[in-house]
Amino acid sequence: MLTYKIADVTVAMDIKYDRLKKQAQPYCFKTDNPDIILSIPEKVTLKAKERFKELDDGAIEYLLMGALFYDKLLDFDGLMLHSSAVAVGNTAYLFSADSGVGKSTHTELWLKNIDGAVIVNDDKPAIRCIDGKIYVYGTPFSGKHDKSINKRFLLGGICFLERGEENEIYETDVASTLPLFLKQSSGMLGEDRVSLRLNVTDKILSSAKLYKMKCNMKPWAAKMSYEKMNTEIKVRLDSIYEVMEEMLSLGKEVTFTTNGDSMRPLLLSGESVTLKRFPKYKKGDVVLFRKKDGSFVLHRIIKTTGNVVFTQGDALLGRDEPFDKDAIIGKAIEFLKKDKTVKIQSFSYLLYKFIYMSNIGRALRKIKRKLR
Q1: 347 CB-near residues (< 8 Å, 6+ apart)
Q2: Cα 34–40–44 angle (5° rounding)?
Q3: Alpha-carbon dihedral of residues 177, 183, 186, 190, nearest 10 degrees?
Q4: In whole angstroms, what separates CA 238 from the centre of its chain?
Q5: ∠ CA(61), CA(66), CA(69), 5° rounding?
Q6: Range scoring the smallest mean pLDDT among 6-10, 11-15, 72-76, 191-195
Q7: Dist. CA 254–CA 110, nearest whole Å
Q8: By the 8 A CB rule, do 221 and 372 touch?
């Protein structure tokens, strides 16, 4: 019985047939004390053969072992979702739908149209909650085409697809997606495991960004979904929020690394920004603010009305939801790019800001929005 590491869980699996042996090979991991041991009882195999007479022995083993792993993964705050997972950088995005809708076709469009995109798993990626974060993993249960990589990524969002004449994607809530999630994450569980499954589902959906999308499988469908699901530079500062607040309140500067491309070309994912608190913030300032859901976003102020602030990412076509000025944490005073540091007093930045905020800049964005 060989041992493997799948979704950061060590697993001993009694595999007899070539299909699963081949797909599990990249996950081989030597250990004398696996977290779980998976072996299919003979009577279960015989019953499956009677029920699925059209399947060969290798396919039946693949399905049954996948169901066993799904069940045991619940004990580690995880489950597998029937979906195609694609990643850009260290962030993964899951697209789920009934078979035949086109989730694999959609993620293939990401590979062709989004720089750096890779398939994490094309059938049943694993999702786990670990220390308050949600991670996505490749698994050996990767469908007939075996598209999977043995890596871990942060979850960027879960999107439920359906076919449509036009491309449309929008953020949705737990209530709307729960039935869809349960349908696509079903497993052969005993009654005593259903409660645990619901508990894990709640942890995932309560923390994840959730979307629904209608798509026509044209190339720009991938660009639209990526732009929407990666619209904000979400800074995971919860653990240091109090320290950061204290430093800024004392007039100190705070520098952190961003994650996202919504402020390109000014700031790319992985580059850094330095913040400082000011008594007032005005149109044109790039500010870090805290949304109602607790996430942090770095965008530019494009309008203020009284105490209400309107912001937008430099690379985006639409505005953010307006918020109160009290949600602003600080203003960017310099941008630490890969090859240089750009201060907000520099001529190059002032020229960039002038063009962006000018009538010409607004007209160009309006034309771009209409073209899109």
Answers
A1: none
A2: 155
A3: 100
A4: 18
A5: 125
A6: 191-195
A7: 35
A8: no
Q: Looking up tokens 């299909």, which residue turns up?
A: 19
Contact 89, 77 (CB under 8 A): no
Whether the pTM exceeds 0.85: the reply is no
Query: Tokens for 326?
Result: 């009290």
Q: Which of 168, 136, 142 is nearest to 155 (CA)?
A: 136
Q: Which residue has the higher pLDDT, 2 or 258?
A: 2
- Whole-number Å distance between alpha carbons of 58 and 327: 56
Cβ atoms 9, 73 nearer than 8 A:
yes
Encoded tokens for 243:
């320290």
pLDDT digits (tens, 9 = 90+) for 90-136: 899 999 999 888 899 999 999 998 889 999 999 999 999 998 899 99
State the Cα–Cα distance between residues 112 and 220, nearest whole angstrom: 11
DSSP-derived 3-state class of residue 182: helix
Residue 241's closest CA among 327, 351, 315, 318?
327
| Of 277, 286, 262, 259, residue with least CA distance to 343 | 286
Asked whether the beta carbons of 129 and 78 are under 8 A apart, the reply is yes
CB 106 within 8 A of CB 114: no
Q: Are 249 and 197 in contact (CB under 8 A)?
A: no
Alpha helices in 297-346 (DSSP H): none
Compute the distance between CA of residue 251 and CA of residue 271 in angstroms, rounded to an integer: 23
Structure tokens at 254: 């705070």
